[in-house]
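[Automated response] Your request has been received and processed.

Submitted sequence:
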Amino acid sequence: MTMLVSGLMIFFTAHVFTMFRGARQRAVDKLGVLAYRGVYSLVSIAGFVLIVKGYGDAARVDLWVPAAWMRQLTMLLMLPVFVLIAAAYMPGFIKAKVKNPMLIALKTWAFAHLLANGDIASVMLFGSFLVWAVVDLIAVKRTNRSAVVAHPRALFDGLAVIAGLAIYTLIVLFAHPYLAGVALTG
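Generated structure:
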């Protein structure tokens, strides 16, 4: 559990730092933009690796046992997640309307996984990401850093839906056991 907590602390410290725009800018000015991005990326990756390893190694101590139907609800809630992630990188109407599709996807992913997992490690992992996504969404809205799409095109929405559903299908049918150690089918 120590590795999971350490990973969460490292990962979120790096991400919280970016919310302090003045401190972030001073770091960019001191290091240069490429060096700053490199350090930020290395710290984030180190935290992420510790999170993945720590979560995989953590004992599963149940706080509650989710109802069987929660798994189906989680699967349903995950459908838009990958569409929103794809839409975050495409100038379509989804991104224009949602404004922060990546953070909405992260909130939905975390909430959905909290529904299906009642053990301490999962609550720490998914709860941390849910809290982070809510806090970051508030910060982004307050600092007016939401995505602005000047000329959205429906073509990009179609591509986001196709890409998102394709990734969803690949993860559900094949990749989830490799990513999370849990098979979703069969």
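Summary generated for your ticket: The chain has eight helices and no strands. The chain has two domains: 1-58, 59-186.
If you did not submit this request, please reply to this message.
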